[in-house]
Each structure stands twice: as structure tokens, then as C-alpha cells.
Amino acid sequence: MNTTENSKSDWLFEITPKNKFFSLNLKEVWQYRDLLLLFVKRDVVTVYKQTVLGPLWYLIQPLFTSITFTIIFNKVAGIDTGTVPPFLFNLAGITVWNYFTACLNGTSNTFASNAAIFGKVYFPRIIMPLSVVISNLLKFGIQFIIFVVFYIVYYLNGAAISINGATLFFPLLVALMGVLGLGLGMIISSLVTKYRDFTYLIGFGVQLLMYLSAVMYPMALIKEKLPSYGWLVEYNPLAYVIETSRYMLLDIGHISIFGLGYTFLVTLVVFLFGVLIFNKTEKSFIDTV
Amino acid sequence: MKDIILKAENISKQYRLGQVGTGTLSHDLNRWWHEIRGKENPYLKIGDTNDRSTKGESDYVWALQGINFEVERGEVLGIIGKNGAGKSTLLKILSRVTAPTTGNIKFGGRVASLLEVGTGFNGEMTGRENIYLNGAILGMTKKEIASKLDEIIEFSGCERYIDTPVKRYSSGMTVRLAFAVAAFLEPEILIIDEVLAVGDAEFQKKAIGKMQDISKKGGRTVLFVSHNMAAVKQLCSKAIVLEYGAVVFEGRTDDAIENYFQEVQLVKHGKRIEIINDSLGFFTKWYIKDNDSFIISSDQKENICFEFDSNGSMKNCELGLVIRNFEGKILFGCNSRDFEGDYFDVKKGKYIFNIQLVLPIIDGKYEIDIALVSNNNIIDQWVSETNLIVKNKFESVLDRKWRGELNLKTFFSYDELY
């Protein structure tokens, strides 16, 4: 053989049957950062095409949900929101909750809905769910602005609402929620490639989860009214995020350091597990999807 | 000293046949159970070779098995083989769309693959926006695309429509735009699958020219898969032939194409095995003139020769030839009296009968059935053990079941009416 073997370090990269047990490959994601931004742009730009109301649709949904919740849960069922106007209470919860569900729903069908493009070209697969989380962040931004507008209107009309020092940490809370949605979405998207059952599970599961996440009631209320089932809400990290966000935005309820620590831990575990299972799936999902 | 830029070692790919669903969970659990005990995947041991026409025993099939090859820097490697030989699977593995079941591939440079033009095109976005998006999907940075934007638009010939949403484009324009983006990619290794099968003749020529530029002037490595032997011949310096998921030939393009047109058959001599000696006469052997095999190309005029031993004289003779496929269906039949022919007389001695014909039929093995008739009595009828093998120089992209029995070259063109 006159072939001179290249030494191992000369190879740029190698394809093997399996990925390393855990690899985030941030370097590669960085190389494809332009693609990430273009996907975000595509998601944002193409959503409004051929609609009359365009981005207004982003505002209609949370507003009408809040009105409905206010009528059903506060006027009819009589849930007490303290000094805060019920509409604002619901709007805060729904805006934050919507970001989580948008991230979860958007990322949970990453593999199934992008099979056509994934089947033809390689780029770091994680770009797709990341772009979903970022484009939804923009959507969340728009919805948050409408919340701020209503906040100011209520404030000027003398509602007893205020912000506090914790408000500064609100962006961190949003990031936490995004990462949790991303992690869960990656886990589910990996499972969906083989077992379609999870598509159906996520459909109604998210709706049920909302009732366990203290979106339309204060956490303290469930402990008071249903002491034997209160743990269902207490073990739900999302409930802490919603409760804390209301504390930060409306100065209502409690901030629980334990609860936040617990949420952070769960998010970290879910995210790492998500990356792990996503890594394992991305290599050959195209054969089973 | 060779400068190897791509090295594939022992690549195999196993697929599961049939419905993925019932039984998957039990197989998954079993596989996982073996894995945690550090044992080998139990389903890797089974599996049939990738021959679509036979009914296999196992639910698992090897689309590729034990593929090894190397590509040097600047080389243009052609990958040829029949439909289902494993070409696309190999390309998918090389372009990292799916992982091999075993083996590994090492790359010494950046790779871009073009398994389909226009991947990720979004109809709602304009041509310009799609150039950026498609370029980024193929691995270019925004800066790289911006610096080549004018060239890309010019090459595509879609300048007037560049700010119109792509959904308003004709299919031909979409393809042109998509290929233009891909043509300006600058990876060290470019993987291309049959993209030339689209577009009109003028554009195909342009595309081939561009690819020649990429490899010759750019010094870049190209892996090219195609059914179009003319394009392979024009572009590639080296080729590998795949058959049933294995590399059956690796070497110079011309030799590879020749190999692709060959097929092994067990009985090769064309001689008659059993001869009944007490008849008036009998056929002894057949062959194809100026050909030491029994392989013909479906587009060539051929002379099929039959040798005949006559024991006496026969008057008013005629010769009939029938060609059957393996289902026993007659594809073609002819008689010596056809056209200018007429009855002929045979005396004692040896004869050669010669039938000149073109057989534009689909590739495969065919049965030769020949008979000599004198005064309406069959003197000898012989079905040869040796089969006639027909090869096609061009293969349709269609699946075998849609291709019928004929192999004819077609040309497609279209115009926009409105």
C-alpha cells in the first residue's frame, strides 16, 4: 500500500453509528447561527401572510381568553384575586403560560413536521427547536406589551397594583420557562418519531396541565380549598413560575425560594435529558418517522 | 502519496421492512436489554441482502453491507447502480441525514449535500429571501451569500422575479433558482444526487458545465450519483458500481460503466446441451456476432447467429424466432420470411442463420426459442439454456413496475402557455 494514512487529527469530522452519549455541540450551532436567525425570520414573517388582521391575532387570543376566564372563574365561580383586578390577574397568567405552551407545542413536533427537510440536508437539528423558542419569544414580547398597556390603564384608574424589586428578575423567569418548554418539547419530539401516541397526549395534556399550574387561581387557594390534592399543584414546577411571575408583575402572592430552586432543578434535569434523547434520535429518526 | 479527503469504512445500513408499529416496542425493549448488558444488538445478525425482487425470510433487510471506499481531494467520484442498489441510502449516510448501522466515515473537509434542489424553499417568501434561507440551510453564512448574491441571481436567470414570492414561480424557475444557490456553495466536498434530472436541456448543459468548473477549477471533491451514464462519463474520473447494497466495482469510469452493463450468468456458451441426433437437422449453438458475451444493449443493432447441422435436404424451409421474458410472455417474434425474406432450401451440411434486429426492451434475461420448419413440419425447435441479456444505457427514474417492457429514449420539454 502506498497510501499514507492521515493521522487521526487530520480528519475534520467523522460519521459514526451513534452520537456521543451527550453532546450539545455549541460550536456547530454557532456556525449555523445565520440559519437560526433566518428560521426565526421565516416563522415570524410567514405567519401573517394572507391574513387581514396579521399580528393582531397574537393579541386577540390572550385578551379573549382572559375575558372568558374572568367571567367564568371570577364572576361565576367567585375565585378571589385579592386587590388585583381579575382581568389583569388572568392576563398575566395567560401571557406567561402561552409562552410555555407555544414553546412546547412548537418543539414537540420538530422531527415529524420537518421530516421533509431533515431527510434531504444536514444541519444541527437543534436549530429547529431553538428557532421555535426564539420566534415565540418575539410573540411573547408582543403579548407582554399588551399586558403592560392594560397594566398602565388599570394603574391610572387607581387599581392597587405595583411592582417590586423582584420584577427585575422577570426576564430570567421567562428564560427558565422557555428552557423548560424546549426540554419537554425535545423529549416529546423524539418519542413522537416512533410512537405517534404522544402527539395525542400532548394535545389534551397541555390543556389539563393548565388547570394544575395555578394560571387562573392563586396557589394558596388550592391549598386552602383542596388540602388533600394540593400537592398536585405544589409538585408542578410550572405553578411556581406562574405564581412567581404574578408576584413580580402584580406584587401579589408569595415568592418561594424553595419553589424556585425546585423549578430550576427540574428545568435543568428536563433540559439535559431532552438534549440527551434528542441527540440519540436525530441520528436516524428519518428511518422511523 | 494520496491525499484522502473522505474515507468510508465498512458502512452498513439495516432497515426494518413492513409497518413500523406493532412489535416495535418489544424489539426496542429487547435491543435495550441487550445493550445494557453490553451485548450486541440481536437484530444485527439477521437480515437479507437487498434484492427487492425476491421474497426474503426476515423482517430486516440490509440496504448496504460492508461498503469501503476512499476519495482523493479534487476527485469526482460517480456512484452508479440500478434502482434499489443502495445509492440513495449511501448518499443519505454520507450527507448525515441518517446514520449508518455499522461502520464510520471520516471527512477531511466541509461537506454540502444536494439530494434535492430547493430544500426548505418557502413559497410565501420572495426569491431573494429564499436564496438566503436555502443558502443557510446548505451551510453558507449570511455574509458568504450576500457576497455571491448577484452571481446567483444572474446564473438562475430569474432576475425579474427575484422579489416575487416563490409560490408564483413556474416549477422550472424554482429549480433554476435552487440550483443556482447550490452551484455557488463552496464546500470542500459536494454530494449531488440526480439533480440534473430536472430542467430543460439547455439548463442541464449549464448545470453540468458548472459542476465541471467546481471540480476542475475549484479543485473540489464531488460525489455524483446518477442514472445518466453520459453525465457520469463526462464528469467523473472514477466510479463505483453498487449492486444489492455492495460495491461490485471500483475504478475508472469507463470500466465501471462497462461493469454496470454486465451481468453474470451461469450458462455462458450458447451451445446445445442435449442433441437428438436422429432428426433431419438440429440447432447446435447460438451467439451474437462480434460479441463474446450474450449481453446486448437495447439501443444497438445486433446479429444473432444460429448454427444448424443438417442431415439431409429440406425444401421450403422457414426459421422462426421467439423471445420470451421470464414470465413466459412473448415479447417479440419474427420469421425468416418477414420483409424481403422467402422460403429457402437446406442441403446436408452446416449452416449459420443470421437474424439482424434491435431489441428496445427493458433490461433483464430473456429466453431464446428458435425453430426450423420445412413444408409446415417442425424439423427442430430449441429453447436455449443460455439466456440473452439485455442492458439499457438509460434507465428511467420510474419504479420498475411502471416501466413496462420497452426501453425507449424519451425527450421532455415544456413551455409556459400563460
Automatic annotation (TrEMBL), chain A:
- Determine the domain of life of the protein's source: Bacteria
Topological type in the membrane: Multi-pass membrane protein
The primary location reported for this protein is: membrane
Residues annotated as transmembrane: 137-156, 168-188, 200-222, 255-278
Annotated localization: Cell inner membrane; Cell membrane
- InterPro entries from the UniProt entry: ABC2_TM, ABC2_TM_bact-type, ABC_2_transport
Q: Keywords on this record?
A: Cell inner membrane, Cell membrane, Membrane, Transmembrane, Transmembrane helix, Transport
One GO cellular component this record assigns the protein to is: ATP-binding cassette (ABC) transporter complex
Q: What GO MF terms are annotated?
A: ABC-type transporter activity
Q: Which residues form the ABC transmembrane type-2 domain?
A: 53-281
User: Which GO terms of type biological process are on file?
Assistant: lipopolysaccharide transport
Concerning its family, UniProt says: Belongs to the ABC-2 integral membrane protein family.
UniProt protein name? Transport permease protein
